[in-house]
Design a protein that fits this description.
It contains 18 helices and four strands. By secondary structure, it is mostly helical. It is elongated. The chain starts with 8 loop residues before the first helix and ends with a helix. It binds a DNA duplex through α4.
Length: 340
DNA sequence: CCGATTCAAGCTATGCGGCT
DNA sequence: AGCCGCATAGCTTGAATCGG
């Protein structure tokens, strides 16, 4: 079954966690809520009216997706808070006030919860419109924030530059080790690099390029997220040491097939040692690429999870900026590094 | 007259069944 | 399937009623 908003929790969370797009969505939907405790709120009645559905339908959704709705901000007001809410309504919307002034408890939705309802309704025509509106705006915001293309969106977060610098150094150690400790062979670099990629994210360089629609001459590594870079660096660094040890033990260069065997042994140990960071890398790559780059890593499908609020901020929010800008801002740091 | 108790309203939560 | 209508229990609350 194809995943869409009505049947996938992760897809829904990935939209509701996108705080960057939320103000745009609120503007576009154009259904004004009542600002209570700094969030826009809607009563169940208002949702019925908005989506043209029965209250019973909303009840059923609330029951079936209890956790999801409490995350997206649905709550039942009683006591003190309900009194405050009523007072607010009395000032803002006397019609609504007359409907609810005597109720002892009242379920209220935040804007996110309102969208959440729209994502789950399969029958309502209005909900269908809302869903397509949501998707359009999410894509718009993404394109706008990413500057029209998402290929290098990985480079927009602050942690990227230090990771990329480290990676550069470790990569050199790795290729040096291949150079020094393995007999001359035209394919040795590519083959071993592919093995590293496959151990970490199950795809070789070609598969990865195809999934991200990279051109032949475009650098794979410059598209890696910070966490992927770190794991790849660690992995290559550790294997470089392994090559050196084995070559010194044998007191000669290794053949490429010896190197492959060595790698296979190493990979089993590395898998255990780096399990947590490898799993983390897989999950981040699969989830972020799906949301930010519209790229599906089929072999990592089980690793797809929801994108955190932090990620949306880091890649799309205020702190995010193009690599060029960040380099410009850090000019002094790089000068110092260079002069070292 | 006033606090306590009872009552009515109207929500939530849930089940059942019928419709498409 | 998914949606909706009806029925019912349980709750909170303000209004009405009661008793001293």
């Amino acid at each position: 079954m194809k995943k869409d908003l009505t049947n996938s929790v992760v897809e829904r969370r990935n939209i509701l966690n996108n705080n960057i797009a939320m103000p745009e969505l609120y503007k576009a939907i154009g259904y004004k809520g009542l600002k209570f405790e700094s969030k826009f709120r809607f009563t169940k009645n208002q949702l019925e009216y908005f989506y043209e559905i029965d209250s019973r339908t909303i009840e059923r959704l609330l029951v079936a997706h209890e956790d999801e709705f409490s995350k997206s901000g649905y709550e039942v007001l009683t006591g003190e808070r309900l009194r405050d809410f009523k007072k607010l309504i009395q000032e803002e919307d006397s019609n609504l006030y007359n409907n609810i002034n005597t109720v002892p408890s009242l379920g209220v939705f935040t804007f996110k919860a309102l969208l959440n309802v729209g994502m789950l309704l399969t029958g309502s025509e209005r909900a269908k419109q809302v869903r397509s509106q949501i998707l359009d705006i999410i894509i718009d915001v993404l394109n706008h924030k990413a500057g029209g293309h998402t290929k290098f969106i990985n480079q927009r977060e602050e942690a990227y530059i230090p990771a990329a610098l480290d990676e550069f150094i470790f990569r050199q150690k790795f290729t040096d080790a291949i150079d020094h400790f393995i007999e001359k062979n035209d394919f040795k670099y590519a083959q071993l690099t592919d093995k590293v990629y496959k151990s970490i994210f199950k795809e070789d360089a070609n598969e990865y390029k195809k999934i991200l629609k990279l051109k032949a001459n475009e650098s794979i590594r410059s598209t890696f997220y910070t966490e992927i870079l770190r794991v790849v660096s660690d992995y290559e660094n550790a294997f470089a040491k392994e090559l050196e040890r084995e070559s010194k033990k044998k007191e000669r260069k290794l053949t490429l097939s010896e190197a492959h065997h060595l790698f296979n042994d190493f990979a089993v140990r590395a898998e255990d040692m780096m399990e947590a960071s490898i799993e983390d890398a897989r999950s981040k790559m699969a989830s972020r690429d799906l949301v930010f780059r519209d790229a599906l890593h089929e072999k990592l499908e089980n690793y797809i999870t929801e994108i955190s609020l932090n990620d949306f901020n880091n890649f799309l929010g205020e702190q995010s900026m193009t690599l060029e800008k960040r380099l410009e801002q850090n000019k002094d740091v790089f000068k110092r590094l260079k002069n070292r």
